[in-house]
Write a structure and sequence with these properties.
Layout lengths: L2 H14 L1 H16 L1 H18 L8 H12 L4 H8 L5 H10 L14 H9 L4 H8 L3 H19 L3 H32 L9
């Protein structure tokens, strides 16, 4: 460490009171955004949903938390399946995602008339009859029936669970941003008025 670097470090510590800043950062990050806390809160929501609804998935609660995280990170079902490993495939992820009330636009791309399908569901038409009426396979009817039922359930609770997921993950983002801002502001204060082309 050369003389200029030592001077910069000393000024930074004097101006920012580094020990205090570090303590505040840890408290903020621990209360809002630590990965462990976020995971725990997401798991609580998943457990509540599992108790309330009949989940159509073999994935564990921990794996479902991964589905939530990766969904909001922008991963598609195939990418989430790769993240899970252990034999999980795209269909497994899609079913889990629907259980968790996490929907994609592609979920509405049905190969039949949706209004007619809704009418058949309202009449409690058996799967085989729906398939014959719509001209599709029974597996297709079962898939879109699950989606329709999950969307109805989500609307019934005013998207309660997706809102909770989003709030938890937003808290983490806010905490991370606060930490970055604290670090940035402290360094800016320490280097204000100094030459910036110091060689480290």
């Amino acid at each position: 460490m050369d003389k200029k670097t030592e001077e910069l470090r000393d000024i930074f510590m004097d101006v920012t009171d580094e020990a205090t800043v570090t303590e505040e950062q840890e408290e903020t990050h621990g209360s809002l955004g630590s990965e462990e806390k976020v995971g725990e809160r997401l798991r609580e929501v998943v457990e509540e949903m599992r108790e309330r609804y009949a989940f159509d998935t073999a994935l564990s609660d921990e794996e479902l938390v991964t589905v939530v995280r990766r969904f909001y990170a922008g991963n598609d079902d195939e990418e989430i399946a790769d993240e899970l490993g252990g034999g999980a495939d795209e269909q497994t992820v899609a079913r889990a995602r629907i259980d968790l009330h996490l929907f994609r636009e592609s979920d509405d791309d049905a190969p039949f008339d949706v209004a007619e399908f809704r009418s058949l569901l309202a009449d409690d038409t058996p799967t085989a009859e729906c398939a014959a009426e719509l001209g599709v396979g029974e597996s297709t009817v079962r898939r879109y029936r699950r989606i329709a039922e999950a969307k109805d359930a989500a609307r019934t609770v005013n998207r309660q669970y997706t809102n909770e997921f989003e709030n938890i993950l937003q808290d983490r983002e806010i905490s991370d941003q606060m930490t970055r801002d604290i670090q940035k502001d402290g360094l800016d204060d320490a280097t204000e008025g100094m030459e910036t082309n110091v060689s480290f």
